[in-house]
Amino acid sequence: MSQELLRIVDNIARDKNIDKESIFVDLEDAMVSAVRKHFSAPDSEIAVHIDRATGKVSAIKDNDPIDIRKLGRIPAQTAKQVMIQKIRADERDSIYAEFVQRKGQIISGTVVRYESGTLIISLDRWTEGFMPKSEQIMGQTHRPSERIRCLIYDVKETSNQVKIILSRTHPDFIRRLFESEVPEIGEQIIEIRALAREAGYRTKVAVASFDDKVDPVGACVGVRGSRIKNIVDELGGEKIDIVRWNESSQILVANALMPAKVSEIALCFELGRATVVVEEDQLSLAIGKHGQNVRLAARLTGWDIDILTPDEYNRGIERLTTCVKSVEGADDVIIDKLIALGVISVLDLDDVGIEPLIKELNIAPELAEKLVETASKEARSLAAESRQKQAEKELAQQANAINGERDD
Question: What is the pTM assigned to this prediction?
Fold first, then answer.
């Protein structure tokens, strides 16, 4: 019996990944509960000890030795129930300790089923993970028994289970996929400096190399696109743009907007805004489908990006020039200073305000106040014009719709 007990402890420890000493302590506590219940002795001093080497069990009650084996079926049942509860608690603690350390890592599992939109995935050690609908890539469905890779997004401990939250939409899922596919990232030759993602549609990844001989973009793409293909296939065809990182914000913004070609960039550090000029034939490419390209580029670079055509840019400069020159004491030098500051429209001048004009451009406070006040009036005028044009456009559309119905 003693050797059998040791084998049982070994098996539980191995299968449940629980420390053997914890199991011995649980067994001793369970037997104490059984003895106390058998003798109906809540105030008695009861101790049970299991020899870790031989498995021999010894027990005492109020300093008198007792034979555990002679207690009968009901105390044994009590010990069993207490033991099951304690082992389950130990197993939860073990699972929590393991998976909380693996938080942010990729794990493989097997799809079990969907429950109200949540995907249940079988993981290591008969543990189940939960992938809420919000963490699933839109448009992808998974069949039972299908192998799937995902990110351990969060680990929560509840009263009766450990809840492992999984994700395939989190940007770090992309980051970990690159680490697994591109050895140079793991070797810290290449670094992912920034990442922006709209899961299921498009991701932009900015990479830099610590070795001049290693091309970070080429290394991430792989020979004939082999590395990036593996990642795209894992994501079900999600488009991935590899962007070359640059410490120059102007170059980085231009790289981030690729494949569109940029003609000119004006940075306004005061507003955190980059005004980007592209030719008419590059406009739709720069903005992207539903504004996706410019939106991801903005998140990747940390700049608020405005895309303008040359005509729009020139009209903004002309209006700014007219506005500034209408203020007494303002000249072409001030206009050049404003443009160098990244202020390329009356709206920018209104947003920047008085203080930067005084501190950055050394403009007299009175003149700065007049410039901003004039720009503010012009900005309100522009807004009114825009509203008027929008109203006229809507009226024209309504009229066309009515005429179309009459023709029918």
Answer: 0.75
